[in-house]
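User: Run a structure prediction on this.
Assistant: Running it now.
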Amino acid sequence: MDRDRGSSEGTGGTRRRRGPLRRFVRFAFYALLITAAIFLAGFLYFADVVASLQPPDRPKADAIVVLTGGFQRIDQAVELLKAGAGERLLISGVNPSTSGSQIRRNTQTPRDLFECCVDIGRQAIDTIGNANETAQWARGKGYLRVLVVTNNYHMPRSLLELRRAAPDIEFIAFPVVNSDLKTSNWLSNPMALRTILLEYIKTMAASLRDALGAGRSSGLRADLGGTGS
């Protein structure tokens, strides 16, 4: 009888100990499931926003900024400058080793247009740097409305950083669309899926950093000990 009672009490103690552990595991599982569902829903919403971005029919602003990342972006920005969409163009984030003449030749920009109306920014090393470089440039020249040229998937984060750096300036999106995400099955394209997923994570991180008021680097070479030019 005593042996049976001891065995019963031991089993009851084990069950009591296992109870909180099981509840914790169950809670952690559901929390992870909900987090994954929110992340997936947010990603699909982000992808739909990116896919829906279209350039304005008649773009017009005080000036134009293009965030470097490919000559297709710069080509588009130069075309906007030629069409009179803005009186001046900033190419932000140019590598210090890249000369203006190289950019002019690669984009086939007329020499007189390039020399009169194109500024080259070499201080930015990332999107935050692009925003700060653009803000300094626009304020220095008194521009209040600026067209922003970059890839469609990069546009949400670019606008987020630009509006944080210069809330007094109106930034107008002019997305460069490399592929039609609305009609193409980008989910089956590993490169497209990776690009959009990575950009979504970066955008979420930037939004979270903003919400928490966390400090951040200026993204400018001069502030990081770079020489720039």
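The radius of gyration is 26 Å.
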